[in-house]
Amino acid sequence: MPDFSRMPGLIYIDLSWNQFTGKISSNKLSDKITTIDLSYNRLSGSIPKSFSNLPSLQLLSLQNNSLNGSIPASIWQNKSFSATARLLVDLRYNLLSDISGNPSPPGHVTLRLQGNPVCNHANMQNILHFCDSDAGGNGTYDGSTNSTACPAQACPEYYEYVPQVPTCFCAAPIRIGYRLKSPSFTYFPPYKIAFESYITQALHMELYQLFIDSYAWEEGPRLRMYLKLFPPISNHTFNASELRWIRHIYTWWHFPGSDLFGPYELLNFTLQGPYSLVNLDSGKKGVSKGLLAAILIGAVFCAVTTSMAVTLLIVRRKNELRRVSGKNLSSKISIKIDGVREFTFKEMSKATSNFSPLAQVGQGGYGKVYRGVLEDNTLVAVKRAEEGSLQGTREFLTEIQLLSRLHHRNLVSLIGYCGEGGEQMLIYEFMSNGTLRDWLSGKCERTLNFVTRLRVALGASKGILYLHTEANPPIFHRDIKASNILLDCNLVAKVADFGLSRFAPVLDDEGSVPGQVSTVVRGTPGYLDPEYFLTHKVTDKSDVYSLGVVFLELLTGVPPISHGKNLVREVSAAYQSGSLLGIIDSRMGVYPSECIERLIELAVRCCEDKPEMRPGMLEVVRELEDVMQMVPESMTMSDTTSVRSHGSSTSSSTSLMSGIPKCARTSSDVSGSYLTSTILPSANPR
């Protein structure tokens, strides 16, 4: 069982339904912790007394383990409860024999003891009440804290029981449709408490006044949710001024900025029942028509008399602002970036036939990628951000700044950019054979054999090694995945997409990257380093983990997450059981068994949970070079020109799609197949 005591900002632990063994650490957790769910594991030993000193704790679930000894009543005795605070302690189905301290928790505490030896002590005060199979329900924590059963349908129409108070209190909620447009996470439960605090603090409300009725992920990814806001328990409804103020907060974006939750949009603000007649447009009623007419006439008169004097000034000012805003981004970048060409919007429109759908070769959260032809007949890839894109100005500037100083055979070269008229376009060298993910998913007309896959792995590794050790300053990529490894006309692998990259700390005297970079977790599920996800500290070993997942994809042809299966876990299990032949992609053809074994061993080492157990990039490159030396010469010679694109240039922008292999025309992420499957279903682009 891991020790989380060194994480002072930790608020939520859910490690249920695993196979953790041993004792729970006795070290004290963060005072901010609200939820500890270690249920359905194989934990033994006693309940740590350190759980008694957690002032914010709301849920402690240890059910279905093998914990023994006494239950420390200090878990609830030492806790100061406010009017709305509550605590659920679920200890069912363990080996706990007694309770040390007062066995009668206060009304704000729900204690569940069914299935423990302590329930055999009938003479212990009130013990049977906590051992009753009906008292604790089914053990699912739904956020409701009512300690008594409320009468069904006892509230008037449009009124409901307030879910998060310990009494049966009826109140009329307002319903709000709300969407997070670009959150920095893809799994919401660990962030639920933080989100509730974020909303209620901005509205100057108590936590119990907010209830998340439902939520669902949408394409983007974006998180759509429906909220209920309840009045304080001293009232059954909000008054008109409170309603206007709440709507003002939502509609005028007065919530504080948050890297975690990102920007939002209000979908609906529903008032019904006692609120249906509230006038949200004015804080006053009964204003006379004469006064309104006088105000209107005065406003019109002022507008007419002043507009003639300032019209010319406004027009000139607007034209000036339009010119400045159209070139503002470009001017900022051109001052700092040397050797990178600045294109106009007109040039890019011409190169892509006015961004024709026929020229589109890819799409992601940032926007679309087009194949273009410059005036000198150079083939380029134009990455154009769309309005509302997940890639903002920061990522746009980051990628330009990084790529302008990077020059390596295995990194995609930046040719230029376009920032005119509010556009955000990056212009790269064109990679005619698309992404590695496309080839592995079966989209291409042909497939990659073993030697080609080995060369791709080595090329990508050399590109990452350059970022870690030779770039000045070193760079952590943070988003290494098969769809960010592109193949040129000779199937040379090149790493792309540096929008999430970060500069690393300065190298030490031994040439290694010391320390770590603290950052909001970004990246693609399935490729994320578990340590980075937990600590928000990214290191060079974070990139090694992601690259190890790519190695496993090369070996199996399967994406990292497919139908609920995790590729790293599946391969690790096969590796430990000695059944590796069942997971190798049959489409790669003949391969030397000793080379495959070395590659799998390397990939598994790269995907170790602990960063210190993973090899460095220099060791990865050397190991792949050693494997390449082991390949028979007959295989390497026959592979040189076995798979190539059908042409690499064209003379005009009107024939944008000529000579493009099938796999290079629609580049997108794929997310679905069982581990042993060799046919992958299609999926919509990110």
From TrEMBL:
UniProt region (Disordered), positions on chain: 637-661
Transmembrane segments: 291-315
Bias type Low complexity, positions: 640-658
Enzyme class per UniProt: transferase
Gene3D superfamilies, per the entry: Phosphorylase Kinase, domain 1 (3.30.200.20), Ribonuclease Inhibitor (3.80.10.10), Transferase(Phosphotransferase) domain 1 (1.10.510.10)
PROSITE patterns noted in UniProt: PROTEIN_KINASE_ATP, PROTEIN_KINASE_DOM, PROTEIN_KINASE_ST
Protein kinase domain sequence ranges: 355-628
UniProt KW Thylakoid keyword: no
Subcellular location: Membrane
Presence of the UniProt keyword Kinase in the record: yes
Keyword set, alphabetical order: ATP-binding, Glycoprotein, Kinase, Leucine-rich repeat, Membrane, Nucleotide-binding, Receptor, Repeat, Serine/threonine-protein kinase, Signal, Transferase, Transmembrane, Transmembrane helix
InterPro entries assigned: Kinase-like_dom_sf, Leu-rich_rpt, LRR_dom_sf, Prot_kinase_dom, Protein_kinase_ATP_BS, Ser-Thr/Tyr_kinase_cat_dom, Ser/Thr_kinase_AS
Topology in the lipid bilayer: Single-pass type I membrane protein
One Pfam family in the UniProt entry: PK_Tyr_Ser-Thr
Listed GO CC annotations: membrane
Residues given in the record as ATP binding sites: K383
Enzyme Commission number, as recorded: 2.7.11.1
GO terms assigned for molecular function: ATP binding; protein serine/threonine kinase activity
Source organism superkingdom: Eukaryota
SMART domains reported for this sequence: S_TKc
Protein name stated in the entry: non-specific serine/threonine protein kinase
